[in-house]
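TODO from last week: model Major facilitator superfamily (MFS) profile domain-containing protein.
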Amino acid sequence: MAIEAALAEHELTTWEALKKYRKACLWSMLVSTCIIMRAYDIEVTGSLYAQPSFQHHMGEPVAGGGYQVPTQWQIAMSMGAIVGQVGGAWAAAIPMDRFGRKRTLAGYLIATAALVTMQVFAPTRTILTVSMYLAGFVWGGYHVIAPTYASEVTPLPLRGVLTTYVSLCYTIGQLLQIGVVRAFINRSDVWAYKIPYAVQWVWPVFILSLLAWAPESPWWLLRQNRMEDARRSLDRLTTGVSPAQNASTLALMAQTDAYEREQALGSTYRDCLRGSNRRRLEICSMLFIIQNFSGNPVGFATYLFEQVGLDTGAAFDMSIGLAALGFLGTVLCPFLLPHVGRRTAWLYGLGYCVIMLWVVALLSFAKDYSSTPAYSWAQASLLISLQFAYALTLLPLGYIVSTETPSTKLRAKTLSLTATINGASYLVLTALGPALLNPGAANAGAKIEFLFGGISLLGLVWGYYRLPETANRTYEELDTLFNLEVPTREFKNYQFPVSG
């Protein structure tokens, strides 16, 4: 039965999978919607740094007129969500393994609703900063729950599509927060920045109203030895699939679990650092570290555009264009990957980002740069093209490959550690951004891209030697490839019979 299920999964086309697993797709999309909240909240404060009302109420007067949020407070506010995420991501796997993906998500959503209230009504920047640290703990959990659920309820042909949707939700959150903040830049009262925070109440209400009917992950149920519940979950996730077919799928899942047990794969965090799991954790973590330092400019985009010479309105408009092209790139990603594969798309995407980062930085040394607005517009345009390439390749592939790479037994914990490492690296970026961009600090402007360009070049070298091709492989096949220590560049063409 397991062999039949493995062969059937390989032969299943994307269109057939969409028809048979359309309910799984819808439930996965619902759970992944929590990433919209995560992206919105993490990015919104960075956009508010450029909003006049936020600058006035949370900032201090600066020489030459106007207000700026002091660098140390920008760092403290921005780091709040990231510091919390480091702990939250690490902790998320514990309730996920004990209570399941569904109940853990429900608890996180309730916590989100309470913490948004604290953000909206924060009377001072101190209280606002504290709320961000607390909320960050919850955001770290979403980073683990959404891709884990998406990868566990969908078949092989849809893994890339549904995990791409996770990254699409991130782009949607970025686009929404920029648009909402832009809509209120002409208001001078506190609601100009309170309303953007209040918008976050929508998502917990929407997701919780439907989550009660969502099926639990069949992989989690299998590991709890609840085989009948796992079978019923598969029945609820599929349409037009016979009970015998779902029984074969469950047999393949059980065989994969048994294989991992035979390989003495434990289920603790320490096991993520042993044997082939160490290599898997390296791949998952590096994908997100390189994401953070590849120049993805959305987090500080509006503020950066202001510092290179654009006025506030133009800076926000360019940021909206940036996020919109990011949305388009992520939508197009599933159409690209079947033709070029994960590894090739990632390498070419990062290569393009490296070139754009260096060009943007070098333009800062052009003659009459400070008095020629055309240079600022050129840099902004190049960053927008970079965002398109980033969203087409690096952003979705980080989620896709990181959910395919871990062993099924350690997926939640591997993704939890990955999110923790991702948060720690983003913490460094969050500290560097305001310090390098703020006029009262280094005032580096677009020269900041020299740093990102250099780090991204090192990431490109790493990817060439360490990033394998994971497309069109079942989880059992990937387990075998990693356990056999197959060289990185041989993953794609390695052939072996499906084990019985």
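Done. The chain has one domain: 2-226+235-242+253-490.
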